[in-house]
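Fold this sequence, please.
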Amino acid sequence: MTDPHTSAPPRTELDELELRLLDFERSWADRVGNREAAIRTEFGVSTARYYQMLYALIDSPIAVRHDPLLVRRLQRLRESRRRARARPFTSDSQDVTE
């Protein structure tokens, strides 16, 4: 019987799904078509779930070691999207009433 309190050794490599996620992101620039449909076809998950998995992956030191340029680019994109969502909405047009 194994001790339930013993932990598994720390991972040092990405699993198959994680590698596929990074490959998909790396090759997306060369693809044509609807990204959401491609995500559903390739991974069988919703777009929201895909981004949950991707964002968890790019926070992993293992992913950074595997492909630092891609992972850091994805981290920068995520942060710029977060900043854009956090900005208050402003309208360039003035509401004119006479």
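The chain has a mean pLDDT of 87. The chain has five helices and no strands.
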